[in-house]
């Protein structure tokens, strides 16, 4: 770790340790990198402590994850007992990848939760259409912010990754936009996700017709725009977004924490600081 990296890490820890204001809400999106992959020196057993440490440094109130295997979720809350997590995997059980949502039990109350699939039959568990090769889904929650009892919706998703899946990503964006349109207009909505496409895409255009992109609108921005780096630390595409309506974005950051040349994931997590 370089001297500048150590200084940046110290500052992040100091900021995270400050008491949160009653209306502050910290939201993180974090693609975990599934432990099912054969990653050798970047396997989960070699980065799970760093993964938890990265969250501890920023201390977000809620985290939308992608590619999460149940053991990874359980390992994380074992190290961070102030958090809990929930969500079914993309096949409707707990043996595959989850869009797991973590939240701080002292800051948020889970009022309601559910899921739907990005397909022609969204209520059918594990349904696949639009040329997808795996089920794609949204995990969602209605939270109550305990300091001020304000409520907000959090949606978490993971779009398909292949170049030929651009139409499926656009269709998924339209389905999410239609689902959000049915929510009470006075309740804030935040989306976290690995969208596997950049902000120039039709999917981003569809979603930002009614939502804002925190990276584009927050007055304070830190770190690189691009987020996927394949464990190299050199990101190539901006595919991890936080979108919102009904809250004020104060800051947005891309977190590039590493230790001894190892990263907590092959994606940089992103975090937005909001005022409810």
Automatic annotation (TrEMBL):
This is Endonuclease/exonuclease/phosphatase family protein. Residues 28-267 form the Endonuclease/exonuclease/phosphatase domain. Keywords: Endonuclease, Hydrolase, Nuclease, Signal. One of its GO terms (molecular function) is endonuclease activity. Residues 1-22 form the signal peptide. The keyword NAD does not apply. It comes from the Bacteria. The keyword Plastid does not apply.
């Amino acid at each position: 770790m370089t001297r500048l990296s150590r200084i940046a890490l110290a500052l992040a820890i100091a900021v995270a340790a400050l008491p949160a204001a009653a209306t502050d809400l910290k939201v993180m999106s974090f693609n975990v990198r599934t432990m099912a992959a054969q990653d050798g020196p970047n396997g989960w057993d070699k980065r799970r402590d760093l993964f938890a440490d990265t969250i501890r440094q920023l201390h977000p109130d809620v985290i939308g994850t992608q590619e999460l295997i149940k053991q990874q979720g359980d390992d994380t809350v074992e190290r961070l007992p102030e958090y809990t997590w929930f969500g079914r995997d993309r096949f409707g059980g707990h043996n595959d990848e989850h869009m797991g949502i973590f939240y701080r039990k002292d800051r948020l109350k889970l009022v309601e939760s559910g899921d739907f699939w990005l397909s022609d039959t969204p209520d059918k568990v594990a349904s696949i259409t639009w040329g997808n090769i795996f089920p794609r889904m949204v995990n969602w929650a209605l939270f109550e912010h305990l300091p001020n009892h304000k409520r907000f919706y959090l949606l978490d998703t993971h779009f398909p990754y292949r170049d030929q899946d651009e139409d499926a990503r656009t269709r998924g964006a339209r389905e999410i936009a239609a689902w959000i349109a049915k929510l009470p207009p006075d309740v804030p909505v935040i989306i976290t996700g690995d969208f596997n496409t950049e902000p120039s895409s039709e999917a981003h255009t569809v979603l930002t017709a009614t939502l804002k992109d925190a990276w584009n609108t927050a007055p304070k921005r830190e770190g690189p725009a691009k987020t996927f780096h394949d464990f190299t630390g050199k990101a190539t595409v901006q595919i991890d977004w936080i979108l919102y309506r009904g809250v004020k974005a104060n800051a947005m950051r891309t977190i590039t924490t590493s230790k001894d040349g190892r990263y907590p994931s092959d994606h940089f997590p992103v975090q937005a600081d909001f005022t409810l």
